[in-house]
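In full, the data:

***
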Amino acid sequence: MSESTYPSVKDLTLEEKASLTSGGDAWHLQGVGTSLKHFAANNQETDRLRVDARISQRALREIYLPAFEHIVKTAQPWTIMCSYNRINGVHSAQNHWLLTDVLRDEWGFEGIVMSDWGADHDRVASLNAGLNLEMPPSYTDDQIVYAARDGRIAPRPARPHGLGHDRPHQQGPRRDEHRRLPF
């Protein structure tokens, strides 16, 4: 058997991650979802709330994003959690290029994008960047109300099936009350 008939270590690792994320059809049929985290460039724990990862577009595309891209395209996790850090000066939860241009528009992510606990520094900017859910603690609900009233939050079309999983093999919870949730 030639060496070229074996999958690369990178390909095996990506497939393992995708299968762990999707959990097979059994998880989805039981209403169990997964959360892929920490998106993206979460490469250190020390001082992770203040770090600014300065990374070239090429390095992001070749090193930091391929595993996320593969998992999103093959497994469609129910949620993706942003990392705490900034990437090239912009917090992950406020990064429109990362959350909307890449994650949703290029890769077709259909689920919920959420912040990590305490990682959302500006809820209005985060919502406009593509964040759907801020994890606690949040003391800024009034900011959202005022921003919605004065038009600083860009409207987005609602997704029809609660968690966005309308493909037969990846349906979200089957309970009617879950399908009526407003996100």
